[in-house]
# Entry
Amino acid sequence: MKLYAHLNFAGDCEPAFRYYEQHLGGKIIMIMRQNEAPNAPPDAGKAVIHARLDIAGTVLIGNDVPSSVFKKVRSSYLHLSVDSSEEAERVHAALSDGGEIYMPMEQTFFATRFSQLRDRFGVLWSVIHERSRT
# Structure
């Protein structure tokens, strides 16, 4: 059994995945657009119908949906744990660029660095560098 996070976008799935690939060290596994699907009609568009991105050993799946049905993620965060305070700062800066910060990057009782934000693509993120438990 496997569990994947699946994100819907309002037409910017590919730019989002390319941004995550560049700034989070991910690797795009595939992107398929409507016009590339088997038996696609001649007027099929270029919206992404299926994309896969490997980030830190986890596969993130995404696709575009019509803007009339798209809703921003409201209460679920992608929780990204990084290996250093410096990496947490770098990732926070990349994801918050053009986004909205809900909790600024700071030290907490459970982390050397922790933040929560919505990125420019509407995805909610928690970024953490956990405290050593030793």
